[in-house]
Amino acid sequence: MKGKTNRTEKAGFPNQRLDRKDLFISYARQDIDTTRALSDALEARGKIPTFDVKDIQAADVWGEKIQALIEEADNVVFLMTNASLESIECEKERRFAESINKRIITIRLEDIRYDGLDEQLRKINWIDAVNKGISDSIVDQLVEALETDQDWVQLHTRIGLRQRDWSNSNYQSSHLLRGKELKEVEVGVDRFSEKKPSLTEDQKNYLEKSRESEKRRQKLRIAGILGLIILIISSIVIIKNRMDQAQQTRAENYWNSAISANKENKSLEAIHYFALSGKEEKNEYNIKDCTFNIQQQSNIRLIAKTKHKLIKGATLSQNGNLLLTWGDNGKAHLWNTEDGTRVNKEPM
Questions:
Q1: pTM of the model
Q2: pLDDT digits 0-9 by tens, 126-167
Q3: Which residues contact residue 78 at a Cβ distance below 8 angstroms, ignoring those fewer than 6 apart?
Q4: How many domains, the chain?
Q5: Whose CA is closest to 341, among 327, 319, 322, 314?
Q6: Is residue 111 part of a domain?
Q7: In this structure, are residues 336 and 322 in contact, taking their beta carbons and an 8 Å threshold?
Q8: What are the percentages of helix, strand and coil residues in the chain, rounded to 5?
Q9: Average pLDDT across the chain, whole number
Q10: In terms of pLDDT, which residue wins out, 332 or 78?
Q11: Quick check: 207 and 186 in contact, CB under 8 A?
Q12: Other CB atoms closer than 10 Å to residue 81's CB: what's the count?
């Protein structure tokens, strides 16, 4: 597709474009004064018309610029006179507009010869301005036609411009619709599915490629999220394993300290380190020839942990049921290792 021009679009509702043009006027050179009068009347009503003399600069490539103006306009208005029907340039403009399914609005300015009239022109309902010129009533009819199905016609133009840019970029995926914009365009296409003009095959293919690309992006996004979740879980497992290993090492060190203290008859230290180790390797344990079971071990550990700073010495009964502790103040406490409670209510 010809016509490589830049344009600026506003994200949001699909038919909004900052460079919106309501119509391109196709006319014969003999009708330039009528074209200018129509353009002025439309601008006075808030419309944005374009035509070659007004919108083509000296350095522009004529044919490409004409096609670009037609692509960027929501409608093509053909000023039908005998001169425009004989004009090769006017025919090129109409053929190009038809090839991209532009809505063509025809204004008949004079009696014409019907022999050999283009079939497409025969099918189009004309605005008859013969012997009327560009009167207010003619402009009113044209404005009404321009505003009919305006949302769809503007969306049609936007899709066409995006498809053109994609084609001119050698079909780079960065020019496809995606995300919110794609969803909004799809909603608009479904909503106006019965409206004319219809999308071209190229435009339909562009939307389909956009959908396929969006599905691939969604899959990659999901895969990335899953990969991140797996990485986080793996990191947590590694950290937990390292913490468990460090805890196990500390427990071994405390256990070895408890054994050394027990051998040296340091009962308080033995009980303290034993409590800190948290090891439960067998059903019964011995400190200074005193035996106690796992449940008693838990209570001894609790007593040793909570009272350690206040305890100067400690000893267990031979069956492990009682734990005697004493401090610097000379007061002693007797503990029931079966339930962890203190036997004597008052210090001894």
A1: 0.62
A2: 899 998 889 999 999 999 999 999 999 999 999 999 999 999
A3: 26, 27, 84, 90, 93, 94, 104, 105, 106, 107, 121
A4: 1
A5: 322
A6: yes
A7: yes
A8: 55, 15, 30
A9: 80
A10: 78
A11: yes
A12: 22
